[in-house]
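Cont'd.
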Amino acid sequence: MPRLRLEPRAQTSRLATYLSPVLAVVLTLIGAAVLFAILGRDPIRAYQAFFIDPISTFYGAGELGVKSAPLILCAIGLAIGFRANVWNIGAEGQFVLGGICGSYVALFYEPTLGPATLPVMFIAGALGGLAWAAIPALLKTQFNANEILTSLMLTYVAQLLLNYLVRGPWRNPQGYNFPQSKIFDGYAVIEPWISGTRIGLGTFLALIAAAGGWFLLSRSFLGYQIKVIGLTPAAAAYAGFSAKRVTWFCLLLSGGLAGIAGINEVAGPIGQLLPVISPGYGFTAIIVAFLGRLHPVGIVLAGLLIALSYLGGEAAQISLDLPVAVVGVFQGMLLFFLLACELLVRYRVQIGQAIAESAA
Amino acid sequence: MSIKRRDFIIGAGGAVAATSVLGMPYIARAADKLKAAWILVGPSGDMGYSYQHDLGRLAVQKELGDRVETHKVESVPEGADCERVLTQLANQGYGLIFTTSFGYMDQTIKVAKNFPKVKFEHATGYKRSANVATYNIRFYEGRTVQGTLAGHLSKSGIVGYVGSIPIPEVIMGIDAFTLAFRKIRPDGKVKVIYVNGWFDPGKEADAAKALIDQGADIICQHTDSPAPVQTAEARGAWAFGQSSDMAKFGPTHCVTSNVDNWAPYYVERTKMVLDGSWKSTDTWGGLAAGMLSMPTFNSHVPAAAAADGMKAYNDVKSGARHPFDGPVVDKSGATKVAAGANMPDGQIAGLNWYVQGVEGDLRS
């Protein structure tokens, strides 16, 4: 009887590197079809409701850009860090800090700054996210504290800070004590660029970030250092690359990008500061980064796919009466298959006895 | 060139045909059936707040049968996502949309402006427009009954209150409860823990445990899951269920529940859209209107306590007793409602201070 064996590849397969996420998506779609069938829905009709209906209108297509923008912005920064073995898990907190700092400008300096308000808000947002990420960077480089833990825990601190501000000092005085800031107005609002949609600055910034990320990783010396440090820290040290410098750079960059995503979300689609400004974008961005194989182009595609799964979840509830939990199951399957297919990059599947084994 | 042009024309014709195929069913359906949707903040299976709204939706479907087509969208985050869901629904020809959580307020107003023909109904908010009506339940009326029962049942004189977020709707419940509680137990204390969310069974249970550890022998809740009732049942404290009848989660210790009945309102408003008489209104109904009800008290409740609780229930329902009858004194000792007067609706709707007996402070 033929046996399936896994044999380590001498070199990671380039083809498998690109094919494994595609295979994961295909397997997820098959799994989803089974799921839909079990729930008593026609899989073809369900696919249509899930993946086509939500973007079949002009507005819906624009929403794909709106929903994917924060995911892509956060994921680009995270991926660059992950390439250098810098594990920033706290993009969610940096996102929140970006929203807070940008909102400070919007709420208190809009009349003074006039047309300069929005640019200053974005600078403040970027600095806020960056400063929040600087804490794990400092703790890592000075005390060798694990950045996974520190960045993650700072997320909760950020959320509580936001909670305090919206319930306390920044609460709308005309808002009946409800925990919301006043609605941004005048120059503090990001207007949609295309009428009839909500698409605007955020989507543009996400694409700029992806292009910048690609340039950094593929065309710059810093990007080369990042990759070498990630692959072989010893060789990087021998070459005289500073791991500390790269740690600082990666955390500040990913924090800054998450901060920009945060203020973009608050000044754009939301329009005011609320106790919760992110449905977990900073965490979902980790999935997006890996689904996109830590490559900027892949991340754009992955961001669009994950965003589509959210839109599809809403559409499937409306037209098929499917429960919202199906979206979670779908995303879980995607992550599962993605990790499983990762195996094919490093191992090859062989049938039968190993030659080396029988020779020995 | 000519080939290209012909291709283009065929392509264009095909596109027109495709649009009409896609577009037709909506138009055809819109003419004979009203499509109505409910946006829920939690899962419809939370067994509490969102569950009750969904029961209301099912009642509409049952009552109006093939004249309506109803759908729900559950666990929609408050904020940016709500706007998209509303816009997608309006684009798909929905004629009536209920947004059932406070945090959907500004998005509802915003989207309603873009779709003047669609009727919107927003629960628990205060902003209205030509096509946005608001509705809410006087949940606080049930708190008077709960406070009265708690006054008789509590031995320690300490009540643990699991709060969601400190907005007026929640604070008015805490205040109404405490006023009634201290009419029986003048030395009584109410301790509040906010879980900063509406549906989080883990946090709700933890809050209930912490409150019981601090001496509370009564657990009250203004959150959506049955977790506090389950915790109280396990620890032998009395509990009051929220939104739905939670007796099955606390067979021996769930005293009664504040049950939301949205169904009659939903049926009435949907009928109004169907016959063209819908107008933007503000509805705030309680026990008398049947929007709030309280199931029979637990058989383990002593007869004297039950009798007094029943009296409070009947008096509030008939209007003989107002939950905020003067004198109402705040924590600083300032008289907010004079003896002999009742707090007006406007003041109740914006309540942002605690009465005496509630521990802790609110930022104002």
